[in-house]
What we know:
Blueprint: H1 3-6, H2 15-36, H3 38-60, H4 65-84, H5 88-110, H6 116-120, H7 128-155, H8 158-167, H9 169-179, H10 181-186
Helix pairs in contact: 2-3, 2-8, 3-4, 4-5, 5-7
Amino acid sequence: MSGGTETAERPALGSGVKLLAELGPLAIFFIVNSRAGIVPATAAFLPATLAAIAFLWWRERKLPVMPVVNGVFVAVFGGLTVWLNDADFIKMKPTVIFGFFAAVLLIGLAFGRGLLKIAFGAAMQLDEPGWRGLSLRWGLFFAALALANEVLWRQVSTDAWVNFKVFGIMPLTFAFALLQMRFIQRHSLEDGKAAG
């Protein structure tokens, strides 16, 4: 047997396993917050997030862009929360990360680039108006999430904010993604042409 067969790639992870890897750290954050408070929850969230990224890399031998970017922000803002014992930093994190995603997508569009194509071009094939339109839609959605988080963390209790982070952001993101399916189908190149 040749060495080439020994180093065959692992089968790609199913979307359910990827979702579990992303939701696991959030579940840990929620459970620890309910029992010990937000600073211990953040201290548990940090290694759980890094472990999830390490697991995804180990299984797929590539670093997933969105979880890695999120992991960097978790490390910075979570680290400041734990180090300074100040929950404001972890509460600001969604504002900053969603604002960052919005800025990248919308500034990319201002320079004529639909930057979602770089992240998701291997997963789906769209015409250029499709990539630009999808970048605009997601850019505005991320800007709305950043604004919502900024208002909420300053106005509601810590537990209410944690509920929004755990039970609000992910369902809103899934619902928004589902609403984009018709737009994606109209601009898909998978059948060799895009619908006009």
